[in-house]
Write a structure and sequence with these properties.
Length: 416
């Protein structure tokens, strides 16, 4: 069992909690006991998919610790991440007489964690909760840092609060139950984390592509720990996103717009990957990245089975989706930038890229729509967009790796 402490003291925003990595839920009870909680009741919040896999096991582990352990299960998927589901959870808590000293457990992926955290932040003006993330995306990102929230009329995370968990307990065995798409979504956040803070970690991730795809537990644990440590440093410095923490939003501006416009048919991590390619592309067009650096960032998405293009969207719709969801008052984009965006979005390229199908075979796809451009009015003076392209300056150092075999996406050792 390995641990990492997330802690901030001496300010109006104080928090302290452990992130625990283990191979099962056997030691969860001991970790909860160490918190010395006053809670007599616990509610396990989960979705219809995760409940079939882990609910009874977790309930059996927690039952000796509390007088009452209930479960609230909602339909799996982003469509349930809204105030209606939160209202149903409130009703469950009220009917079961939950008090302020009681606690919630978020058992599931990012949707479960965000929704449970928001309910905990607002029920009786705030109760404790514990994160039990079961997806790679939740383990590397959303379960850490105290951001909670739900969608509102398909606008991503428009209603939320900062509310830190008392504990984050990661059972690494749960990653074996993820399908290929769900696992790839987490890799979108992993690659993002390396890009924003640690070039060596980014290169390490690429060099361990085979072990990661095979889900070798020690490699996954090391990767997840590094992501959490990077996020810990950012969150401790800027817990409520007044400045530095915005760096964690690389890829999310266009990514959230795509999620909304595609009616959440694409998963969050896939949309983050698209947004990251877009951010890299506009940095490349403005000479902040070399062509080599841009293509490296783009092609690594392919290596981890993440998309680099999206069909069926108009540039005007993406611009409209970006504007109100970020800052309605300051949403102004010059005509020349809009035209540049349209040109980039409408163009087509012939590419030979390979995606692994569910049956294990490779399928070649061609005629990709060109890469969605991220658009902004004034990166240096505006807070409109989440990730100013200037912050990618550190990628000036050449990333020394290349494809050895395009079909298998095998990369050479950068030290060769």
């Amino acid at each position: 069992m390995k641990t990492l402490t997330v802690k901030r003291e001496g300010t109006s925003t104080e928090f302290s909690y452990e992130i625990v990595w283990d191979g099962s839920y056997e030691r969860l009870a001991g970790c909860v006991e160490n918190l010395k909680l006053p809670a007599k009741k616990a509610c396990i919040v989960t979705d219809s998919t995760v409940s079939e896999l882990y609910l009874e096991e977790v309930k059996n582990v927690l039952s000796p610790l509390f007088e009452t352990v209930t479960a609230f299960v909602f339909p799996a998927g982003e469509a349930s991440k809204n105030l209606d589901t939160v209202k149903d959870l409130y009703t469950h808590l009220i009917e079961n007489h939950f008090e302020r000293k009681d606690i919630l457990f978020a058992l599931g992926g990012g949707v479960v964690g965000d929704l449970t955290g928001y309910a905990a932040a607002t029920y009786l003006r705030g109760i404790d909760f514990i994160q039990l993330p079961t997806t790679l995306l939740a383990q590397v990102d959303s379960s850490v840092g105290g951001k909670t929230g739900v969608d509102f009329d398909q606008y991503k995370n428009m209603v939320g609060a900062f509310h830190h968990p008392r504990l984050v307990y990661m059972n690494m065995a749960t990653l074996k139950s993820l399908n290929g798409d769900q696992f790839a979504c987490g890799m979108g956040e992993v690659l993002k984390t390396g890009l924003i803070r640690d070039e060596k970690f980014y290169v390490w991730t690429i060099n361990h592509m085979s072990e990661i795809e095979e889900r070798i537990e020690p490699v996954l644990t090391k990767m997840i720990q590094k992501c959490c440590d990077i996020k810990r440093q950012v969150v401790e410095n800027d817990p409520t996103e007044q400045g530095e923490r915005a760096v964690l939003n690389l890829g999310h501006t266009i990514g959230h717009a795509i999620e909304k416009l595609k009616n959440f048919e694409l998963l969050h991590g896939q949309c983050v990957a698209l947004g990251t390619v877009a951010a890299a592309y506009i940095s490349y067009k403005r000479s902040y990245l070399s062509d080599e650096e841009f293509y490296e960032i783009r092609d690594m998405n392919v290596g981890f089975y993440l998309p680099i293009t999206v069909d069926g969207l108009k540039s005007e719709d993406i611009l409209a989706a970006i504007g109100p969801s970020i800052c309605q008052e300051c949403y102004e984009v010059s005509e020349d930038v809009i035209e540049e965006f349209k040109t980039a979005f409408a163009g087509e390229y012939q590419e030979r890229l390979y995606y692994k199908k569910k049956n294990g075979k490779y399928k070649r796809q061609t005629n990709f729509i060109s890469y969605i451009r991220r658009v902004a009015q004034d990166y240096e003076n505006s807070d409109l967009f989440c990730y100013p392209e200037q912050q990618m300056h550190h990628l000036r150092k050449k990333i020394k790796h290349r494809y050895r075999n395009a079909n298998k996406n095998i990369l050479p050792n950068p030290n060769d």
